[in-house]
Sequence to fold (167 residues):
Amino acid sequence: MFKNRSYMLGLGTGIILGCLLLVLMQAAAEGETRLMDFENNSSASAPEDGAFITDEELQGMLAAEAERVQAELAAQAAAEPEPEERPEPAPEDFSQLHRVVRIKSGTTLQTAAGMLEDYGLIDNRLQFITKMKEEGGKIRRGTFYFEGLPDEEEVLRIITGPPITLE
Fold:
């Protein structure tokens, strides 16, 4: 085949090892830079290089850092507005409730049943899965449209039927 097979094998191995060493050296240089940045950005109360600290000093530093973090979290929580709670629709408004569910290709029956339960279309996903298996129907992928509060039979009929097309 090749006239100098061992030469080519050695050359290829050398190139690969050289690349690996280059990547390792770059990673080490980056790690050293990150370490230096970390040391430069550390708090002023940190001990000097080579200095020893006692357990009490360490506990004090940890407590101060914990207080600082708690203060930051409290400031963030105060700055964030409270999420608005959507009122549950009144029973007479359920007829005007519209939901669109998209079932992707490869979605399992368990995942689809969980989605339908999350959307409030079925009450018990395990019961729905059992009924689906008994009927032998297969969930189709696509986008499905639900109005009002359909019963389990209607949900089953819709998701095993043709999906809606958005044009």
The radius of gyration is 31 Å. The CA atoms of residues 125 and 146 lie 17 Å apart. The longest strand covers residues 98-103. Strands lie at 98-103, 142-147.
